[in-house]
Amino acid sequence: MINIRTRLTYQFAVLVTLILLFFSLGVYFFSKLYLEKRFYKRLQDRAITTTTLLFDLQQTDSTVLRLIETAEKKLLLNESISVYNERSRTILFSTNPANTRFHEQFIPQLDSAVHTLYLHKDDQQLVAIRLTGGNSSNWVIASGIDQEGHEALIDLKKILLVMILAAILLLGMSGWLFADRALAPMSGIIKQVNSIFPANVEKRVTHPNRSDEIGELVSTFNQLLDRIEQALNTQKMFIANVSHELKNPLTKINSQIDVALIQRRAPEVYERTLHSLQEDARTLTQLTNALLELANSSIQANTMQVEPVRMDELLWETKTQLQAWHDDYIVQLTFTDFPDDEDALLTQGNRAALKVLLMNLIDNACKFSPAKTANVTFQVHDRTIRIAVFNEGPQIPAADLVHIFQPFFRGNSTALSSKGHGVGLAVVDQVTRLHKGTISVQSTTEGTTFTLILANNVPF
After folding, report:
1. 376: which strand partners?
2. What angle separates helix 351-368 from helix 311-325, to the nearest 10 degrees?
3. What are the pLDDT digits (tens) for 292-313?
C-alpha cells in the first residue's frame, strides 16, 4: 500500500512534468515557426535582390550571378533562384540550372491571384513572388535548406530534454521534502492520539493552526474524543449505579432468606418475610425493566418498526394501564382544540416505544406529586402534536434541570422524596430523539411541566 507521502510526491512530479512537457513543446513549436518564418524572409530578400538586379538593372546572367554572390556572402544550403515567365511558360533565368527541375514541379501551384506563396517539401523551403510589368508577368522562385535552423532546433531539443530530466529529478526530491513537511503535523497528531488511553481520555489533540484543514480535522477528532469521554463516563456511571441498585435488594433478599433458615418460625413470620421478599423482587423487576427500556431506546432509527400511531388513543391506553398498576394514581386528561381531521392525531413512530415514553412521563409526574396526580393536556397545533404533563411536585433546581435527562441522574430533592433509579427520563429523551421530536421541562414553585412535541401526519 502506497502511503500518502509517496502518492503526493508522484502526483506532484507527474503534474509538474506534464506542465513542463507542455511548456517545452510550446517552446519547440514556436521556435520552429520562428525559424521557418525567418528563413522564408531570407529567401524573400534573396528573390527581391535577384529581381532588382535582373529586371531593374538589366544586367546579363553572369553579372547577376556575381552581384548576387557579392550581396550575400554566406550562401544558403542548396540555394536556387529561378525566374518563370507565365506567358511563355518557360524559366528565363536560374542561379542553379541543375535545380531547375525541382522548381518546375511547383509551377502548377502558382496562383496568379496571390502575390507571394510560401511552400515547402521535405527539408526544402520555397518562396515564389509574382512580378507584373507591362504585358509580361514573371514569378521569382527562391528555395533552399535552413541548415542553421535545423541545427538550432536539434540543439534546442537536446537542451529541453536535459532540462526536463533534471527537472523531474529535482521535482522528485522537492516533492518528497514538501510532502514530508506538509504531513509533519499528521505525524505529531498520530503520536498524540497514540498517547491517549482510557486512563487519560480527557486529554485532547493540539494543533497550532486551527483554521486550516488539519486544524479542522483536529477539532473534529477532539469532538469525537469528547463523545468517547462522555460515553466512558456514562458507562462508568451506569456500572456504578447498576451495581449499587442491584446490590441492595439482592443483599436484602439473601439476608432475609438466611435469617428465615436459621430456625423454624411461626407462619406469620414467614408471611412477613415473603412479603418483604416480594417487595424486593418487585424492585429488581422494575430496575431490570428500566434498564431494558433504556437499552431498547438506544437502537438505531432505521431498524425501528414505524407505523401510524394515534396518540390520543395511546394516551388513554397509558392512563388505564398506569391506574390499574397503581390504585393511588390519578391521571387527568384534557383535550383542547381537538381536530376534525383524524390524520392530525396520527404520528409516524413505534407504538411500543411511544407507550414507554408516555408511561415514564406520567408515572414520573404521579410519583413526585403529593396528591399522586398528573394533569395531561393534549393539543394539536400547526402540524404538531403537543402533550404537556404537569404535576404539583416540588420545584426542580435550575442546576438539576440541565442534567435531568441523563441516565441515573437524581437530584438531592428527588432522591430523598421518592424511590427510583434515574432511568425513566433518560428513556423519554432517547425515544423522543428517535422520533425526531422535542422534550422540554419547566419547573416553578407551582409545579413541573414536561412538554412533548411530535410531528403529525397532516400533509404540507
Report:
1. 333, 389
2. 50
3. 655 565 555 556 678 899 999 9
Model pLDDT for residues 223-264, shown as the tens digit of each residue = 888 888 877 776 676 666 666 666 667 777 888 888 888 888
Contact of 437 with 454, CB cutoff 8 Å: yes
Mean pLDDT value across residues 308-323: 90
Rounded CA-CA distance 369/375 in Å is 10
Coarse DSSP helix, strand, coil percentages of the chain, rounded to the nearest 5 percent:
60, 20, 25
- Grid coordinates of 3: 502511503
Length of the chain: 460
392 vs 374: CA distance, rounded Å: 8
Residues 169, 374: Cα–Cα separation, whole Å: 81
| Rounded CA separation 14/167 (Å) | 11
Q: Which amino acid is at 196?
A: I
Specify whether the CB–CB gap between 417 and 368 falls below 8 A: yes
Rounded to an integer, what distance in angstroms lies between the CA atom of residue 51 and that of residue 306? 99
Is there a contact between 44 and 142 (Cβ–Cβ < 8 Å)?
A: yes
